[in-house]
Amino acid sequence: MLSLWLSGVDAWMGAVHGMSFAELQREQIRLVHEFAAQVTQAWGAGWMPSLPAKQPSITERMAALSLRVVAGGRR
To answer: Which DSSP category does 72 fall into?
Structure first.
């Protein structure tokens, strides 16, 4: 009976060890990906051309124009 109980405990401990090892592996992979993204962002910024400024939408341009007209003309 003791042998059966110890065998069950051993199987359970093996499963727990496997799950904890898998979780540790997932955490390491996540950290490596995060580190790679940070390095790419830090070093890549100097090599990438700057993006052109976003042009305001037609609605935003019309609103700004109407505000200028109400305020007394172009500036």
So the answer is: T
